[in-house]
Amino acid sequence: MTMDRQRPAESYLPLRPVEFHVLLSLAAGERHGYGMLQDAESRGERIDVGTLYRALARMVDQLLIAPAGNDPSDERRNNYRITPLGLEVARAEAARMAALTRAARAGGLLGAIAT
What is the pTM of this model? Predict the structure, then answer.
């Protein structure tokens, strides 16, 4: 079931953490699933392989990401790319999380950022 493109980016929010990590990874360029797992791990997030591949299928269906063909270095790996809608949704989610972080700081849950 493909989602309607007329749906505003904010209606996808909040994203599941795995979905945000996928979009964050793909914002830097095409990647295959294992590359996305490594990217997330470099940010301190462990993602289960099954969870990742279910998220990828869901996100392709929602037009947030698209298959980009096989990895030239390994034909068994499928690359994905972020779509314009996916980039818009990722930016909206980042803004939502930034607002929550500001609120947590103002509420005394987080210290001030050192400059």
Answer: 0.86
